[in-house]
Queue: 2 jobs
Job 1
Amino acid sequence: MLRFELLATHGRARRGRLTLNHGVVETPVFMPVGTYGSVKGVLPRDLDAMGAQIILGNTFHLWMRPGLDVLRRFGGLHRFERWPRPILTDSGGFQVWSLGDMRTISEEGVRFASPVNGDRLFLTPEVSMQIQTVLDSDVVMQFDECTPYETKGHVTTEAEARASMELSLRWAARCKAEFERLGNRNALFGIVQGGMYEPLREHSLDALVAMDLPGYAIGGVSVGEPKDEMRRIVAHTPHQLPAGKPRYLMGVGTPEDLVDGVANGVDLFDCVMPTRNARNAHLFTRFGDLKLRNARFREDERPIDESCTCHACASGFSRAYLHHLERCGEMLAPMLATIHNLHYYLNLMREMRDALDAGTFDAWRARFEAERARGV
Amino acid sequence: MLRFELLATHGRARRGRLTLNHGVVETPVFMPVGTYGSVKGVLPRDLDAMGAQIILGNTFHLWMRPGLDVLRRFGGLHRFERWPRPILTDSGGFQVWSLGDMRTISEEGVRFASPVNGDRLFLTPEVSMQIQTVLDSDVVMQFDECTPYETKGHVTTEAEARASMELSLRWAARCKAEFERLGNRNALFGIVQGGMYEPLREHSLDALVAMDLPGYAIGGVSVGEPKDEMRRIVAHTPHQLPAGKPRYLMGVGTPEDLVDGVANGVDLFDCVMPTRNARNAHLFTRFGDLKLRNARFREDERPIDESCTCHACASGFSRAYLHHLERCGEMLAPMLATIHNLHYYLNLMREMRDALDAGTFDAWRARFEAERARGV
């Protein structure tokens, strides 16, 4: 099931509530990424404590490991990874596409060799729906071809982007048919493609809206394009999607990207940035970003951010201590950094929801930008 | 300060209470090892929740990184690593000894090149006391030479072990003098050496007892000797130490070693085994040990140990899930394994304290051995 209520709007920005089979999600929301059934570096208990409402899993990775036999035995991903709240899974399309020369794309689907054991595999819209049904994902993404911004220096032309987008539309129809045939009771989202070309985005959007799916995503952004290109598409597409359905901007982004996305009417985001950057000692804060490896933190007794209420900051771990842990390669460095960064992202969304509830989103945004520019 | 109360005895086994400047420690106790100011893979909050009473730090490592200037700024190790309870530190002797060809031992101390930046350094009994005073360790260990069991295939002779033990005794006297000169208000422990030779152990013990230190350790075991040699020394030395003072068996060991140590009158233990083995997917349980990488766990829906109350077991993470995380190199595998193993070790000690309180240690021990032999 999926129910979406629009609670408030402010310009294009929206405050909503999404009800899925495993629970309620207040939007706009950030979804931490749990590729292999684990959000890297953090206990599910701590994810829950910091207010994560919905997390991602990657269909391709979970298909490879642990494999469908194991996931079927556990009745899906929720029980396997001990996360009782909603889960969204991607379709596997982006991952097989990323295999480059190791895969062949045809009308039927994508042939490739398993990077784990070399098995010859075939991922199609139907197979993607079958896997996501085994996973019991609350939100199932259509199998699509993620149109690249460029390939080995060649920027995708409009004709290439059109052909790719049209293939994704044909795959969307096959996904819908298979999803229904399987009797899946969760929600299938379509993905708007079309590269950096607005007319193609509109064509994709119209065709998907005509399919009357319960939600829509904007794909093919944050794939290596210049930031202003991304901003152009984010300003163009989301607000044209049906107002009564949730909108998901895939794989985005920095704190500034999230704020820009919300301002443009996006409801859901996911990105590996808070977790991956944490493992690279890159911390996000209200007052700008902080690189723990910088020697200036060697004797710094302050927490990462005095105004932050995450476990790492509230427990008083100092920048000097975190710098030391990072330098010594101690696991506690990425553990605390992951808690901090995810808390920052989740809290950023919470602040936006509160500002939308209170009708003060513009003032909130001005303060956000001023504080981020201040520097730590 | 140090106060030690003997609450109960059972044969040679003892139930005690150790009061240190940062708190009370119920003995017998296991001390998790936090080499660089972090017990690897676990948040201090979780260490506290699982009942850790006292943890270790390594003087040599902390001297190298973060360095004394940083530790002095934080007023010692407790505030730096956010651990308010007692801390014991070793003397640095074992680590400089481990540098092998990179160090030179003389009567005065040990000259070596810093493995971090190549600086030429000189560690002496006095310097060790000075560093441990900056760390504000609740228990300060004397600087000693850890007599090796063998060196490049040559088993240490009685004459070599005697010379080494006598050097450690002279260093103990220098440590005591420097500790007093510094006005250190914590507690200095002497270390009984003498290799695998009982007469040397007795000589060392008598000389140290004559110095009237507040506690004593048994060093130079668990350094590569055959298990029966270790058991022989553990059966020989601890119970001859003064009954009214705490006894610490350094660097030991397996669950069976801890039980054997307690039965022989040991009060304190430390070892990297629970944390290091966790990172190698080796789990300790009541019913024997479990190697997570074993393919037989691929579909195993059971927790590590159904009778265990640690966060990993009580939250229902399955062997299949942990096997999967380990296979994928996910950080959550060592995180959950560390919680489980430390909980197992701390709980093992808790069970022994309870059995000593109840006067049922022999029965407890028989059950422990039968259960461990059962297999998971």
Note: The interface with chain A takes residues 36-38, 40-45, 61, 65-66, 69-70, 73-74, 80-82, 298-299, 301, 311, 315-318, 320-321, 323-325, 327-328, 330-332, 334-336 of chain B (CB under 8 Å).
Job 2
Amino acid sequence: MATQANSVPHPTLISVDPFVPADQQKGIHNRWHPDIPAFATVKPGQTFKLEIVDWTGAQIGNNDNSDDVKNVDLTKIHNLTGPVAVDGAEPGDCLVVDILDVRPFDKMPWGYTGIFELENGGGLFAREFNSRAAKAIWDLDGVYATSRHIPGVRFAGVSHPGLIGTAPSAELLATWNKREGELIAAHANSIPPVAFPPEPKGAYVGQDNIPEEVRNKIYAEGARTVPGREHGGNCDIKNLSRGSRCYFPVFVQGANLSVGDLHFSQGDGEISFCGAIEMAGIVTLRTSIIKGGIEKFGLKNPIFLPSPVDPMYSAKLIFEGISVDLHGDGKQYNMDATVAYKQAALNAIDYLMKIGYTREQAYLLLSAAPVESHVGAIVDSPNACVTLGIPIGIFEHDILPKEEGLVKKDFGQCAIRSDGVV
Amino acid sequence: MATQANSVPHPTLISVDPFVPADQQKGIHNRWHPDIPAFATVKPGQTFKLEIVDWTGAQIGNNDNSDDVKNVDLTKIHNLTGPVAVDGAEPGDCLVVDILDVRPFDKMPWGYTGIFELENGGGLFAREFNSRAAKAIWDLDGVYATSRHIPGVRFAGVSHPGLIGTAPSAELLATWNKREGELIAAHANSIPPVAFPPEPKGAYVGQDNIPEEVRNKIYAEGARTVPGREHGGNCDIKNLSRGSRCYFPVFVQGANLSVGDLHFSQGDGEISFCGAIEMAGIVTLRTSIIKGGIEKFGLKNPIFLPSPVDPMYSAKLIFEGISVDLHGDGKQYNMDATVAYKQAALNAIDYLMKIGYTREQAYLLLSAAPVESHVGAIVDSPNACVTLGIPIGIFEHDILPKEEGLVKKDFGQCAIRSDGVV
Amino acid sequence: MATQANSVPHPTLISVDPFVPADQQKGIHNRWHPDIPAFATVKPGQTFKLEIVDWTGAQIGNNDNSDDVKNVDLTKIHNLTGPVAVDGAEPGDCLVVDILDVRPFDKMPWGYTGIFELENGGGLFAREFNSRAAKAIWDLDGVYATSRHIPGVRFAGVSHPGLIGTAPSAELLATWNKREGELIAAHANSIPPVAFPPEPKGAYVGQDNIPEEVRNKIYAEGARTVPGREHGGNCDIKNLSRGSRCYFPVFVQGANLSVGDLHFSQGDGEISFCGAIEMAGIVTLRTSIIKGGIEKFGLKNPIFLPSPVDPMYSAKLIFEGISVDLHGDGKQYNMDATVAYKQAALNAIDYLMKIGYTREQAYLLLSAAPVESHVGAIVDSPNACVTLGIPIGIFEHDILPKEEGLVKKDFGQCAIRSDGVV
Amino acid sequence: MATQANSVPHPTLISVDPFVPADQQKGIHNRWHPDIPAFATVKPGQTFKLEIVDWTGAQIGNNDNSDDVKNVDLTKIHNLTGPVAVDGAEPGDCLVVDILDVRPFDKMPWGYTGIFELENGGGLFAREFNSRAAKAIWDLDGVYATSRHIPGVRFAGVSHPGLIGTAPSAELLATWNKREGELIAAHANSIPPVAFPPEPKGAYVGQDNIPEEVRNKIYAEGARTVPGREHGGNCDIKNLSRGSRCYFPVFVQGANLSVGDLHFSQGDGEISFCGAIEMAGIVTLRTSIIKGGIEKFGLKNPIFLPSPVDPMYSAKLIFEGISVDLHGDGKQYNMDATVAYKQAALNAIDYLMKIGYTREQAYLLLSAAPVESHVGAIVDSPNACVTLGIPIGIFEHDILPKEEGLVKKDFGQCAIRSDGVV
């Protein structure tokens, strides 16, 4: 018969508490550095779990104003669980990671999506909208999310770690800091900043027994976690979801995999920056090693196989954008897919406002829902063309264009600052 | 019983011959201008067909060298069938177009994909590859394409018009010419050019009875057809395919719809510029009008509903790219999705070369096959992240990463120049 | 340049006229018999076309009453184009057939779905409904079908030959006639009949030069075309559609493939018997031979790979049925999937009637639309459970269950008999 | 910040221990009867969890022989968690149930699929195979299942409750017992039995405070749980999965919903009877009530909307079956979809045996994997045609038909009886 004895749970290698500030917990770090020691070790082929705090490390609450978003401390973000060393992994290898499951803690069945202040975090439209803090709390009910702050929608999440990667070698880290430093230098005083240099303030490695000089070195040199890079990192690819298989390059002995920034759901682009449904939770992983895989597969970046259980919403309403700033001064850009993406998103936001959502709700919804954005064409000079498709099936009512026009409903407003500024 | 009398075919409003140069045929034009008269008129609700030459107007042949691509006359491209006026359409309306079918001529069951010379047409990697002319001829067998120049693959086409749009008003045309002229001025002598100004040479409107002064005006001012713009145009969106429903803004009396540049198939991005499987053929359309639709739906660009019969290849191998030029000088770009797209594509090309395709074959294949490119994240400063997914099911053999590495087969080479230069 | 010389159309091996009675045309036959000579021959690897009359051979017209359905001559049905011999195919081989395209004649862009009289053809609910003739004419607009007789729906067709198969050997034919004869004997005078024995009346092979004694033998012994059998035949599998690859067993020299009964669309089950959207049209095929394939793959029946371009309607409303006659006398059947299917279909018909369709319209719609029926469970004694899913996206309005109940619209009625009997 | 206070977990209404025999636990019952009191109550709109033992109530172990399957006590099966009363539900209403999640216990990450003995449980091929007990243990790793007993496959589960339903009224229960009793009487001594009459032995309701006479009545009259019926029940519909929305008829005050028989995965048909991946686990549900819904929607059986996160395996190898017993005596059946299903399944089993699986492994695999079975056609007298499609992507190697034939690998054998009898 079924017994406890013949039922072996998958081990949880690192446990965390989602209600305790990240910098008070073990097995968490928030910078990338080769000298951060592995906190746990696994053998290839072993299924294991990691518990993960939300990306801010418990800074955001389940409530109805956005003051916590306004005041978020961004030096303490992307609290990663790890590193986990994989027995036998060596520089030059490929680390195959099966992302077997991603789910919220049972004790915390909610997540949030935030719009950050222009001066504290920004986002894709931080300048266009002169962004003020806003947020939506999402209730997580099994595979679905709904929000009291964005009524009228319900969707299945394409749950994934926004951030997953192997540790950089010293050489790779130096390359990152150099190239990003040059960009920062070229855009001094940009608001929001174009990139983030190493910053000891807020840096954290939740391990004892790290010699002070090593810790200082890590904090002084450690790469910030915001961008995706050659090792993976904060790619925020929604389809790196539960059920996907990912191939990462290995740069240090043991590979030293770290994971964080769990998303219950996210749209392509994650436009509001804190744009996914951010959550704390648990990932289930299995790894294997392909010796010499970097060379075998030409891995300059990770590659992956998507999951067969990603949500299927086949009917979509699709918006186009071209690299002309039609929502601004009408300027013509030169084959700029970022501009084209932004125009497609602004077209979608305008449409959502015509059916009754506020600009803030629309911005949050495009960030969090399983929106798909394709690069349509990128050779038709001078206009890149990017599309953004909203699944029709996530809405409780029919949003399609009709001869009689669109019905504007009243969906209220999302959570805003306690001082009422939007 | 079934009789000819009770079987009314859908009328072909404009007929062309795919084997005759476009500038010798009626009902074709290759510039956008409000003064081009409608060549045919339909009532809303009527199903009709348009015949369409390939985008070069018969300049490319079904043969095994690329000299025709090398010498293509680009002043004579994007030969559009139309304009077709829709009874009752007025500026400010939305023209709903059902793209009911797109197929090649029975008498011409082939298409082509070309890499253009750096100095004559270019393409996404024109400079990186110092492109020389190359091409692949595709045999079109019902829903499938195969190529003697790219063995080992077969795929179902997501057939669509690369180019479809309404006529611009005089004001809109002036806006286009102004903004693109400024871009050209800012990038003088760029190779390939960043944009194309009006050019009387090669301009063509296949209609008699146009007063000479009007014709001269059209040729002098007419916008070139290369980019997609507010009216649709050369968007090269692969999912604007047979079965889709599109909503276009109307800028002139009658809307004056024109269609061209049929693609049997195309990957997101259409990277080699002549990157789709270009074909001549027949579209079947139906239109309706939504009065005041521009205002009702906030149409700054077309919007559309994709087709339920687009090919479904659920298993993919996905490559990531970030806005760092890892295939070049390692430079860090600032949230540049175009750079990220290029890196993802270069990662894919490298991989395809490891399994045996030449760089030219890989470039053509990514352009023509139903490849999907998503904007992963566009807020993680400084790195945009773009993915490019190749459907696994289009290959005759298994291309997935294996522990033993990749097997390099010999697929020969695509069609190249008769002088052997690649 | 593109020329007629370098553009070789796929050859049409057999041409027919959809407006001429089938029994006045060459290259058509309506019985299965090994002695029917091949009418055309192809080499493996060659792409070719076959033209095909509608299954009744032009007996049904595009009009608004169902008298032609009432009076259809069922001894003259399933007019097949062929046989086509494949060079080198021998008994024991597997004939691989790529169904590359299936489309209506340009000159006949319509099809029909019929309910047959109880006494002349029947159908799944012939007895339950005491069926009287009814029909719907469908307009075929590219990938879509709509009907003036069933307003409110539009759907993409999963186009396929209802009937495709290789010729039987003499031994196989004898087996068929024996086993079906025994069934007929066991159900004498059943209305509608449980099966159809060989019948010289109406038998037809459109070839000259067949010796009279051979022709008489064919007509006397030839198997009727109604059921699917080991060789394929009238399987009416909607997913044997354009883009699919099928593996047929070969029983005679040359395989002798015949094709007929084209369907623009069909639901799983094809419940009204003439339940697909029946059409005349053109198939494009390619074949190859696998020597000894029957043994290699254990082919007792054909196997196939479905098409990547089958319509994708992911959202469905699904009805369950169990093997209890809840719509009739409440009788309990023993694990009978046919009864369960019927109950699911009757549940669906009732639902469609609640939103305003007549029973006849509902019956026709379930037959013709891309409805999916799954065998849920077939081991839970005594109840088989079968599901039937209607795609939501084919309706112009929302049909989902709502708190306020269902809105009953007026959709008129389909085409019925001129005497008004339904 | 995130706190325990603002994080309210979904309540678990009924808890069970998967390692304790079901008949020693509270909140479990294994018969259907209107007099079983509700064990818990919820308000409409509340998200809640139920814990559920495996269908045998811990009789089967994670080990490598099938003796436990051989000796399973079938009077004690389908241990349901519940009933749960929904506030306000009344007879005639429709109970809408959102199946929000279905997952195994973290402490029991495994499940099993069993072949039952001919004389103890049976299964679809119990007589054809003279079935002896066999089983496969599946490791559940996040969304995937693999088995040491069936190497070479890995698939994502379409997780669902095999059994979910509302309580019958006294009248409905009487109808069930009458009609099934008649069937049993008509097939006396059938092995395996055609149906199961009420049976006090093994009957169980895990609630105190039930008056003895009521308990005796429940045990004497209570309907067995094997078949699906009007109220839902053991439908074993794989797509009634997490993410689906189901509409049940209500027959008693409070609706009294019960759930059991969780399946990590199942193929259409669940052919080996214990054919799903049976597991213990947790469901997350939410309910709402539509007053008078039975009449509004014509609910003779439940209807449902499938989940957007069901696994998507688009490429399949599809087997056909017709209602002729080609694997047996060649007998012709009359439009019998059950026979056709069986033939399709036998064709698939033969094919799987050609690539190296044993008959037992093939039988178990078809039962457990996300196999799709469609009713192709059910009107082509005398042959029903049913298809069964195996997803290609679940295999680690290529199983498609090849010119060179199929490669037969060695996959060992599944778990069999300790006496070695198969």
Note: The CA atoms of residues 3 and 9 of chain B lie 12 Å apart.
